[in-house]
Write a structure and sequence with these properties.
The structure holds two protein chains of two kinds. Chain A has 15 helices and no strands. Chain A has helices spanning about 1-40, 45-50, 50-55, 55-65, 75-85, 100-135, 140-155, 155-170, 195-200, 205-240, 245-250, 255-285, 290-295, 300-310, 310-340. Chain A is globular and about 85 Å long. Chains A and B meet through helix 1, helix 7, helix 8, helix 12 and helix 13 of A and helix 1, helix 2, helix 5, helix 6 and helix 10 of B.
């Protein structure tokens, strides 16, 4: 009893310490983003105003004043932080709306896409990695290796072009870019997720159409992640198989499959959890290229469009939100790691 | 080419090269040979070919990379233009070969400078311990909060478009992983006897760190550098595709794909530059993967 209490106490203290570190990280991240956005030579005023307006000092001055660009740096950071505390990320220069509203509008499409892509890469990557490790040096291992290295090496934007050209342009099997076809009405926004809102509104045709539109972008997005997961699973399985307890299990005369699946796999999953968490966070943010090509109305495309015209409130907002997601995912990975392997906390 | 066909082609190539070497015998040894050397050898050959092409570009290309020929625009692949021409009638093959110069230069500069900086930070942190380690590694952790491509995009957009600025943006996000790896490697070495011996002899810390410890820890760093070269080329091509890489007339693979992305029936404009990226990145990944297996004691034992 006492020991169990001590154990849970230690877990709580570990989680608390990770939380403090995470909070500090987020605060520092805001500072870095603020510094990048405010010390670089690019001038948002000149990109936003036309040439004629930019040559008129009075307009430029009024514009700078409106967006607080004429305040001293320290004060601007303070204003930025105070706003953050109220969930205010500023107003996007290009859309003229609060950045937080823009993000809330575009995030669901990205979450939907990257979740489907992540599930795809797990469904194919995990078994392939386990198989490759079990049948090491067989043809399946070589195919898995070449497949995953190719997946990691293919440029996303090029793969997207090829997929669209072949399956949409040439064969006509898949729908074109976008989240739903032009003949479909978007369902009323409840959650923002197309795959949830459409059935809620009873629009099953829209639901099917949205699913069909998900196929190509999610395959493109999953290709690299699948390769990573396959490689990591294989390496982790081989590592687990070389441990003493496997030799013991073999000596006990356990069947090969029992050894693999009940003894080796659970231990091999540890590094896969770490990588999986990070890969998911990367997917959420790595959608920039895929979304741009597939005209996917998500955060990635929004980020790109904002970066193109130096819409700093928007860029800062997205980068910050993404940094927070990263920190949270890291926190979850650390905690799940600690729960799976109590030795971690002793370090 | 679909990946399974690619795999089959590899096996055929292996069989062919194996029958040439009469000394190899027994399927076990053949398989080990296959695993250890075939993919890295292919990768190495591909990289060597690209390096050579980049180096000799002016002498092996039939056209100049920026010669506009509006009359011959969007010509399909032919004997005169092996890979066709783009929207301005420029020879796609010529531009791909010149593009190798940009991609390889950027890849090597980002990874070499980034790994040097990261290794320095990580190695010093691990050797110094105490508050210096705390500060350096917290800074490294902080950089990990940012998704590389978004941060690089923000920086590249802010600095202005151009190869040098994009390299700077990539460097900002590149060093942390090397700092983490170098730290763990140096931590692993510093408690070993030879370090204690070097200290007893009275070598200065910088000598111990750079002349004794780092050479012993260099293997995993080399693996990461090799794998990362492909990665850097991929990220740069991506940024270029988004218009944040090179200034337009410069031939660059990512921006070439971008120029051809609307031209589905003139598929050659976007397809071939993409294949160029794919092959060079696969090359580095094959070599890096082979190096990793070779350096991994578990894999070597068997």
């Amino acid at each position: 009893m006492r020991q169990a209490n001590g154990g849970s106490h230690r877990v709580l203290r570990y989680i608390a310490s990770r939380l403090v570190i995470a909070a500090a990280m987020v605060l520092l991240a805001t500072l870095i983003i603020f510094l990048i956005a405010n010390t670089v030579p690019g001038d948002p005023v000149l990109t936003q105003l036309g040439d004629i307006a930019a040559n008129n000092p009075a307009i430029v001055e009024a514009y700078r004043h409106k967006w607080g660009l004429d305040l001293p740096m320290g004060e601007r950071y303070w204003v930025f932080l105070r706003g953050l505390a109220h969930g205010d990320l500023g107003i996007s220069i290009s859309s003229q709306r609060p950045v937080i509203d823009d993000i809330a509008q575009y995030a669901p499409a990205t979450i939907e896409l990257s979740t489907v892509a992540f599930m795809l890469s797990l469904i194919f990557g995990l078994p392939l990695g386990v198989l490759a490790a079990m049948k090491r040096d067989s043809w399946i291992d070589h195919v898995a290796r070449v497949l995953s290295l190719t997946g990691v090496s293919a440029p996303t934007f090029w793969l997207a072009f090829i997929m669209l050209a072949v399956f949409y342009g040439w064969l006509g099997w898949a729908p074109g870019p976008g989240q739903i076809g032009g003949d479909q009405f978007p369902p009323p926004v409840v959650t923002g997720f197309m795959l949830i809102d459409a059935p809620l509104a009873g629009q099953w045709a829209t639901f099917r159409d949205a699913l069909a539109h998900l196929v190509l972008p999610s395959i493109v997005l999953a290709s690299a992640t699948m390769g990573l997961i396959t490689r990591t699973t294989r390496a982790a399985m081989l590592e687990a198989l070389s441990q003493d307890y496997i030799r013991v299990a073999r000596a006990k005369g356990l069947r090969r499959h029992a050894i693999m699946l009940r003894h080796a796999l659970p231990n091999a999953l540890l590094p896969v959890v770490t990588l999986g968490g990070l890969a998911y966070a990367q997917l959420l943010t790595g959608t920039v290229l895929t979304e741009t090509i597939f005209s996917w109305p998500g955060l990635g495309r929004y980020t790109f469009q904002s970066a193109e015209i130096l819409d700093f409130p928007a860029i800062m907002g997205v980068t910050l939100v993404v940094a927070i997601v990263y920190v949270i995912v890291n926190l979850l990975v650390d905690v799940s790691y600690a729960l799976l392997d109590p030795r971690v906390m002793r370090r | 080419m679909s990946p399974p066909a690619f795999g089959a082609a590899l096996t055929d190539a292996a069989a062919a090269s194996l029958s040439a070497t009469a000394t190899a015998s027994g399927t076990g040894r053949r398989r080990r040979w296959l695993r250890r050397y075939l993919l890295p050898a292919i990768g190495g050959a591909v990289i060597a070919a690209w390096l050579l092409a980049a180096l000799l570009a002016p002498w092996i290309t039939p056209y100049a990379p920026d010669t506009v020929n509006v009359a011959g625009r969007l010509a399909a692949p032919s004997l005169a233009h092996w890979l066709g021409t783009d929207e301005l009638g420029r020879d796609v093959l010529t531009r791909i070969i010149y593009g190798a110069r940009t991609s390889l230069t950027v890849g090597f500069s980002v990874v070499l400078i980034g790994s040097a900086a990261g290794t320095l930070v990580g190695a010093v942190a691990a050797y110094a311990r105490g508050w210096a380690e705390e500060v350096l590694m917290r800074a490294t952790d902080l950089m990990f909060c940012f998704p590389p491509i978004i941060l690089a995009m923000a920086i590249a957009a802010a600095l202005g478009i151009g190869t040098r600025n994009t390299v700077i943006a990539m460097l900002v996000v590149w060093w942390p992983k090397f700092a983490r790896l170098a730290r763990s490697l140096v931590l692993g070495q510093r408690s070993l006897e030879y370090v204690a011996a070097a200290r007893t002899i009275g070598f200065p810390p910088s000598h111990i760190l750079f002349r004794q410890i780092l050479p012993n820890a260099v293997g995993p760093l080399v693996v990461l550098i090799t794998l990362d070269l492909g990665n850097a080329i991929l990220v740069f091509a991506g940024l270029s595709f988004l218009g944040l890489g090179v200034v337009p007339p410069t031939p660059e693979w990512g921006s070439m794909v971008s120029e051809g992305r609307e031209l589905v029936s003139q598929w050659w404009v976007a397809t071939f530059p993409g294949i160029a990226i794919l092959t060079v990145v696969i090359g580095f990944n094959f070599v890096g993967d082979g190096l990793r297996d070779w350096l991994d004691p578990h894999a070597r034992r068997r």
